Amino acid sequence: MRTQRRLRGRRALALLLVAVGALVFAVRLVDLQVVSASALNEDARDKRAVPVTIPSLRGDIVDRNGEVLATTDERYDVQLSPKNTQINDGIFHRPAADGGIGTEEVTAEQAFAEIGEVTGQSAEEIQQIVDDALEIDEKSDFAYVKRQVDLSTLNRLKELGIPWLTFESHHTRTYPNGGVAGNIVGFSGFEDVPQSGVEVSQDACLTGQDGSEVYERGADGVALPGSVVVTEETVDGGTVQLTIDRDLQWEAQQTINEQVQDVAAEWGYLVVMDIKTGELLAVAEDGSVDPNDVDASDPAKREARSFVSPYEPGSTFKAITAAALIDQGAATPFTPQLTPANWSPEPGVQFRDSFSHGEEPWTLTGIMVNSSNVGISMLGSRLSEETRYDYLQRFGVGEATQAGMPVEDSGLLYPVDEWDRQTSYNTMFGQGLSSTIVQTAGVYQTIANDGVRMPPSVVRGCVDAEGELAESDHGEPVEVLKPETAETMMHILEADVQEGWIKDNVSVPGYRVAGKTGTAEQPDGQGGYRPDFVSSFAGVFPADDPQYVAVASIAFPKAGNGGVAAQRAFRSAAEATIRTFHVPPSTGAYEPLPVTY
């Protein structure tokens, strides 16, 4: 009896223990599967899921015809997991070669040799990479095998099917046309961060949105098939379309470099603008930066100097004074003005013409043809300072352009109440103020466009992934002159070419040309002026049907005539523009205007 009672007690105790264990297990199971399931799943996923950033592509910069000036070249880093090369004594399996059935066994040493055959390394070099990493950290999960390989190399490595070999993409900015429009396009610096030009100003368009994905991997670090999940789609950057014509830009750069070298000038600029739209077709500067090799260029010539380096324009701005006189009814092309070589209109104020002459019976046309500082000031004095200042402003002087560059200088135009007496007269012939060459081109665009100033532009807009162009805002057109005033000024500017000494230098056979020279002193930074000059020519062609403006400036020549160099640069640019856009020849003939009375 006693034995039976002991047996029953043991059974009861065993049943109780089983019941308690079952209850504990049940509680734990409920906790795992219900209460803590979400947190545990998330924790497990975090431990086995590997996040991967999918970088977006930076958009292209193209010319007006879609020719690529800047693009993104993708390169890849080849990486491995040192610790995983040691799993299973360095042996892994991969699908049989040549599409065979089953798998084949591969050793780490064999894999090193296969990788090296593609990358140009030896198996020993790759083994050393692994050994070095493991010596530092026996659990090392990362080491570079080869950086910056191309797509072809990447695909060959992927075909090897090595589970512990991974890849990371990188984007490198490249410029297929080298220095062509380098001053406008700009360049990138360390890690392809944009540094200048359109690369900076249009960064919002060019920059895409990186995507992301995750994949799960096993204990051996190998990605689990079918485990990739895209968590955010990649959106590539847009395409920036410029107004520049690549081929014309190349010719303009060749031209300005040649002319600068011929006369040993300090610098030279050359721009071509569409009269009807204000679009800049070429913006050339000597020694422009090659974005592929920035360090090889002169640091002072890496920016778009045509937008950020104003200078006193000189006699090209006499056209503004003449236009204001005609527009206000204060003069006509035939207005007479007996003109001496020197004039002192007020105490302490004196200026002269660039050449000696007696009192000349010149008309306003003759004053422009002979580029007389004295004559234009005598006639210009018929207008109040406020009126002349108003016209300068309406022509865009002293107002920063909005063409699409990161920085665009306004030039210098003091308010009337800050003019001293000398400056009041000097502004009538383009001294005592400054402008960029783009602003100067805008002056002649306005005259040639029936008196309507179109804001200059170098960026047409941003093209999105669907091919839609969002046009850039460069400002509104401004009515500066009456149409009849503009027509009269075109006649005077054509006379300037036909009646002056410059005719042989700027004429283009079959095409009528209108324009004006400029020779300007420049500040020396010490309160005075340099002894040498900046020479310019601003021209319109064809004069009978104005379509294009070209302006050339040559600064401080040491071995030749800067004025002639600027005129030859204009002519070369005009001929290149005519070829590029198939401009038909002029019709009709120039009608002479009297230069004397």
TrEMBL record:
Entry's transmembrane regions: none
UniProtKB keywords: Membrane
Gene3D superfamilies: 3.30.450.330, DD-peptidase/beta-lactamase superfamily, Penicillin-binding protein 2a (Domain 2)
Biological process annotations from GO: cell wall organization
Keyword Membrane: yes
GO MF: penicillin binding
Ranges for domain Penicillin-binding protein transpeptidase: 268-571
Gene Ontology CC annotations of this record: plasma membrane
Positions of the Penicillin-binding protein dimerisation domain: 54-223
Location of this chain's protein in the cell: Membrane
Family the UniProt entry places it in: Belongs to the transpeptidase family.
Entry protein name: Penicillin-binding protein 2
Organism field: Leucobacter chromiisoli
